[in-house]
Amino acid sequence: MTVPRPERVDAFGTPERAPARTASPWRGQGPVVAMVSLGGAIGATARYGAGQLWPTPAGAFPWTTFAINVVGCAVIGVFMVLITDVWAAHRLVRPFFGTGVLGGFTTFSTYAVDIRTLVATGHPGTGLGYLAATLCAALAAVWLGVTAARRALVWRRR
User: Fold this and answer.
1) What does the CA dihedral 113, 121, 125, 141 come to, rounded to 10 degrees?
2) pLDDT band at 90 (very low <50, low <70, confident <90, very high)
3) What gap in Å lies between CA 35 and CA 125, rounded to an integer?
4) Cβ atoms < 10 Å from Cβ of 137
């Protein structure tokens, strides 16, 4: 003989339903977080290597960081055209390469620290020039990357 389970009721005598099980937010996002982390490690390692190969002397224009940010922005422009206009990429490609690798490679935090260091060490003109030049060059690089990729696609289709 089975004994019926007592129902839980609320204050009004209405039977309560068991709380619905919610899926862990990490279940669906776990692979994305892993790909961003892996890509970020690769990009940051490449940036670190470039900084070691071409160090910036104190008080000088930080050409290495400038070049990294401009090249990274151009690649982001090309990449976005490729994954939106050319092929339907796997759902983890954009987080891995776009957010991870290129996000880890480009270094706008170092850009901000470089500006602060230049100003603090008595080179405000260089810091201000670096601030403006990086912003303008990075935006131009994204635009050029997008434009060049789209023109290459049109030329290829002919």
Assistant:
1) -20
2) confident
3) 40
4) 17
* CA atoms 79, 83, 86, 91: torsion sign: positive
Three-state DSSP class for residue 14: coil
At 49 the three-state DSSP class reads helix
> Which DSSP string corresponds to 53-112?
HSPPPTTS--HHHHHHHHHHHHHHHHHHHIIIII----TTHIIIIIIIIHHHHS-HHHHH
HSE-CB at 81 with a 13 A cutoff on CA atoms is: 18
**d(C-alpha 124, C-alpha 38), whole Å:** 37
What's the rounded Cα separation, in Å, for the pair 43 and 109?
Answer: 14
Rounded-to-integer distance, Cα 91 and Cα 94, Å: 7
pLDDT in tens, 103-147: 999 988 899 999 999 999 999 999 999 999 999 999 999 999 999
Number of CB atoms found within 10 A of residue 102's CB: 20
Q: How far is CA 102 from CA 42, 79, 121, in A?
A: 9, 10, 30
Q: Name the residue ranges covered by the structural domains of the chain.
A: 30-157
Query: 76 falls in which pLDDT band (50, 70, 90)?
Result: very high
